[in-house]
Amino acid sequence: VYEPEHVASKYFCAENKENIEFISGHMRYGLHKLLDKPASYITFVREPVARIVSAYNYVLSIGFLPADSTIDDFLDYDFLGNSDAMVRQLVHDAALDANSSPTTRREHARSVTQGDFDAALAAIDERFVFAAPTSRYDEAVLYLARRYGWPAEQLLDVRSNVSPKALELKDVPQSVRERILEVNQWDARLY
Description:
Oligomer: single chain
Number of strands: 4
C-alpha cells in the first residue's frame, strides 16, 4: 500500500498533473489533497481473514519471512501492520501508522478506536463514489463499467498481485480465524 505522497512524487509532474483522470493501485486515502482539482475514490474492502491470508502468502513469496514460517508466526511478527489495516488506510492519520524496523515486531502508535472507524465511514461517505466488498467484485465491476463506460470485458476476472498460495483460506484453522478477527474487529465491521 503506497502513501499518497509516494504516488504523487512518482506520477505527478507539472506537465501531466492537470491531465490526470484516473489513478489506480494500492494506496492510502489522501491523494485528493495533493491534486489541484476535485477527486473521488472507488474502493474494494476485503474480508479480514482473507486479507491476512493473502498478505501472509505474499510475504512468504517474496522472502520477507523464512519459508517455514506459519501464519501464527506472521501474526506474531505483524510484518505489514495488519491489525485493522483497512480502517487505518481510510483514516490516514499518522498517529495510527506503524513504527518498525526489519528485525522487530511492528508496533502501532495506537490502536484503532470507534472515532477512527467513524472517520473511515465519513471518508467513504464524503469522497468515495463507490465502495464494495471484494466478494462482490464481478458484480461491482459490471456496475462501474455501465456507470463510467468502461470496457467490462477487460475488467472482469482481472487479478493482479496474486501470490503463490502457501496457505489456502479453506485450510485456516478456526483458532487462527478467531485470532485474526480479534485484532481486526474494526475491519470486520467495515467489511
